[in-house]
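Why this split exists: single-chain examples teach little about how molecules sit against one another. For that reason, every record in the complexes split bundles all components of an assembly together and asks for one structure covering all of them. Below is a record exactly as it appears in the raw files.
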Amino acid sequence: MAASLADRHCVDCKPGTPQLPLDEVERLLQQVDGWAVEAVELDDRHQQLEKIFKFKGFMPAVDLVNRIAAIAEAEGHHPDLQVSYGSLTVQLWTHTAGGLTDNDFILAAKIDQVAGPLPLPSP
Amino acid sequence: MAASLADRHCVDCKPGTPQLPLDEVERLLQQVDGWAVEAVELDDRHQQLEKIFKFKGFMPAVDLVNRIAAIAEAEGHHPDLQVSYGSLTVQLWTHTAGGLTDNDFILAAKIDQVAGPLPLPSP
């Protein structure tokens, strides 16, 4: 059986590393929890993974920033993180590939591990 | 002599608190270091203070997030923070006022204090 995404490690992406084909993106997206594929800002050519974590207050988001930073440093692959009161938005893409690679899904799975399950929606 | 911005404390902003008039924004902007007044995203009606800190690597930005978070919690006024590899963007505005108040400049001055001086531009 193949190792789960969260058990794998990011590999160095050299310039020219290809983006994942769309069917592989869709396959891997099923293996992470609550992530969406979005266009990078206004640039339709580049895709990224995005997940929004919701919290009560400010410090839980900062706490998750610290947990994600430790993973990012260990893997040598760094997300963009947007902290606001009540939320943390995480964005992942591979600059050298100009889009999504295995590394992004590996980091997403590891982030899911340290973040715990998504809270249930409010009734 | 009036207390410097960094020595003052944020006050509770009730709904209906007015934005600062433009001449007061310009006066206070002279008392903080490297901040710019920007429109909030695509909404021309709301203004915010923004400062971009540049770093080598990822962890210095995370370190500054933690220092800013401690101030924000103490003052009960919270910025938006965008962490990327090599930079931290800080955005400040007062939601209850729909724009800038004294609180934003007070927090900006306190952030300047914990961040230290801006690095010299590269030669």
